Amino acid sequence: MDKIANLIGGKKQPSASARMAPIFNPATGEQIAELPLSTAAELDAAVAVAKAAFPAWAETTPLKRARVMFRFKDLLEQNADRIARAISAEHGKTHDDALGEVQRGLEVVEFACGIPHLLKGEYSKNVGPSIDSYSDRQPLGVVAGITPFNFPCMVPLWMYPVAIAAGNCFILKPSEKDPSAAMVVAELLYEAGLPAGVLNVVHGDKEIVDAILAHRDIKAVSFVGSTPIASYVYATGTAAGKRVQALGGAKNHMVIMPDADMDKAADALMGAGYGSAGERCMAVSVAVPIGGKTADALIEALAPRVRSLKIGPATDREAEMGPLVTKQHLDKVATYIDKGVAEGAKLVVDGRGFKLQGYEGGYFVGGTLFDHVDKEMTIYREEIFGPVLSVLRAGTYDEAVELINAHEFGNGTAIFTRDGDAARSFADKIEAGMVGINVPIPVPVAYHSFGGWKRSIFGDHAIYGPEGVRFYTRIKTVTSRWPDGIKSGAVFNFPTM
Ligand code: NAD
C-alpha cells in the first residue's frame, strides 16, 4: 500500500508515526493509500528547517523570489492534468472541475509573481525639517497553513505563494482525507528552484494542528475548514500570540427575483448547488425565490434538471458530479436528508439510495431538492456540504434580505434579477463577504481577496490578494534625518513637526 511521506527540507521524508489514516478512492470505496499521522517531533523538525532557511530567503531580493514563482506557474500549467488526476483520485470531483481548481490556484501564483510591486512601501519627504519617512512590509518568519479536503490543490495555493513570495517560510498541513495533490504541487515549487526548507509539508490530524498552534517559532496561521474548527484554531492560535486568519463554513443563499430569467437562474443553481457534489464553501445551498409564482416556476425548472444530473466517477468525462469524499460524509448527508423530511420540508427529488452500476462501493448520493423549507429547520440552519438544495420561499425582497442577514454564516450570496436598483441595494445591505449579481459563485479573482463575514471567518484579514500580502507581512516605518538637519541642544517636549 502506498504510504504518503512528509516533505521536509525539500525532500520526501517518511513519517515514523504508528498512527495511520486510510485514503480512499471515493468512486469505488477502495483504500488506495495510507497516510501516517505525523508526530509533534516531526513538526518540530520541519519548523527547525524552515527557521534555518528564513534569514537567507527573507534576504533574497523580491525579484528573485518572484522568478521562482514565474517558473512555478509554468510548471503548474504543464502539470495541470496530472494534478487534476491526483485531486480527483482522492476527492472524487470531475476532471474538468479539478482542472478549474488548479487554474484558480495558479492565478494566486500569478498574483504572487508581482511581489516586488506588492511589497513597495510608502515614502514621504520632509515630514519635518530635513526629516524623511518611509514604511515597508517585512515577512513574519515561519508561518503555517491548515487546509480542508474540498480544494486540496487550490486552498494551499491561496496561502503559500503569497507567504513565500513575501519572504516567509511555510509549513503546510493538508487535509488528511486527500493529501496527495498538495504533495505533487509542493514538489513542483522545488522544481522551480525554491531553496530547501522554505516550504515544508507535514501531514496529520488534530495532533499536528495543536502542535502548530502551540509552536513558539510559528508566527502566523492560515486556516480554512469548518466553522467549529476555525473558531477553535482562531481562539487557540491567538491565545498563543499568533496572527491567525481562520475561514469557516457557509450557507450561501441565492435570491431569485420575479423578473429574473428563470432558465438562466435554474442553470446557475445547478452548477452552484450540485457542482463538486455541493462540497464547496461557495456552493449555493439555499434558493430564495420571491413570491409564490416565482417559486413554482423555479421548482418546475429545477426538478427535471436535478433528476437528470449526470453522476459518475472522475474517469467518466461526461459526468457533471462525482461522489462525496468519504463514507462518513455520505452518511452525514443522508442523515440531513432524513431530517429534512422528518421536520416537514417537501422532498421534490430524493438522492438517497442512488447507486451507480459498477461503482456500488462508491460514496455517491443523487442530487436532492427540497421545497417549502423554513428557517427553523436543521437543513436550513446547518451546512450540509452535499448536493442538497433547499428552496425557501420568501414573500418579498425585504423578507429575503432579513433572512440572509439573520443567518449565522455570511460567506457568499447572490441575486438574480434584471432590476438594477434591487441589485445595488442587495450588494450594499447584505451581510456577506462576497456578493454575486447574476453570478452564482462569486469567488473573487486572485488580485482581490477572499473572505466571508460573521461565523464564516475569524480574524481581520481575508485570504490571498492584497489582504494576503498584509496578513503575511508586518509594517515597519522608518523616520530619518542626517547630521545637517539636526539642531544642537536636547529637546524634552514630545516631538511635533
Ligand atoms: P475540517 O474543519 O474538518 O478540516 C479542516 C482542517 O482542520 C483539516 O486539515 C483537518 O485535519 C483539521 N481538523 C479537523 N478536525 C480538527 C480538530 N478537531 N482539531 C484541529 N484540527 C482539526 O473541514 P473539512 O471537512 O476538511 O472541509 C470542509 C469545510 O471547510 C466546510 O465547512 C467548508 O465550508 C469549509 N471551507 C471553507 C472555505 C472558506 O474559504 N471559507 C473554503 C473551503 C472549505
Structural class: alpha/beta
- Overall strand count: 23
* Low-confidence runs: none
The overall number of domains is 2
Q: What is the tally of helical segments?
A: 16
Helix content: 25-40%
Distance between the termini: 70 Å
For the largest beta-sheet, the strand count, sense and barrel status come to:
7 strands, mixed
Name the strands of the widest sheet in spatial order. 15-16-17-14-13-19-20
CATH top level of the largest domain is: Alpha Beta
Radius of gyration: 25 Å
What do the pLDDT scores average to? 97
Strand content: 15-25%
Bound molecules: nicotinamide-adenine-dinucleotide
What is the CATH architecture annotation of the largest domain? 3-Layer(aba) Sandwich
Shape: globular
CATH topology of the largest domain: Aldehyde Dehydrogenase, Chain A, domain 1
CATH homologous superfamily of the largest domain, by name? Aldehyde Dehydrogenase, Chain A, domain 1
Describe the structure in your own words.
The protein is of the alpha/beta class and 497 residues long. It has two domains: 2-248 and 456-478, Aldehyde Dehydrogenase, Chain A, domain 1, CATH 3.40.605.10; 252-437, Aldehyde Dehydrogenase, Chain A, domain 2 (3-Layer(aba) Sandwich), CATH 3.40.309. It has 16 helices and 23 strands. It has helices at 40-59, 62-78, 80-91, 95-112, 115-118, 154-165, 180-191, 206-214, 227-239, 262-274, 292-307, 327-342, 378-381, 397-406, 420-429, 465-471; strands at 2-3, 6-8, 11-13, 20-25, 30-36, 122-128, 131-139, 142-146, 169-173, 199-201, 218-224, 243-247, 252-256, 284-289, 346-349, 368-371, 388-391, 409-410, 412-416, 434-437, 453-454, 457-458, 473-480. The strands form six sheets. The protein has a seven-stranded mixed β-sheet with strand order 15-16-17-14-13-19-20, sandwiched between helices. It has a six-stranded mixed β-sheet with strand order 10-9-8-11-12-22, sandwiched between helices. α3 (80-91) packs antiparallel against α7 (180-191) and α4 (95-112) packs parallel to α6 (154-165). The longest helix is centred in the N-terminal third of the chain and has 20 residues, at 40-59. The mean pLDDT is 97. Nicotinamide-adenine-dinucleotide (NAD) binds at residues 146-151, 155, 173, 175-176, 205-206, 209, 224-226, 229, 247-250, 281, 383, 385, 411, 452, 456.
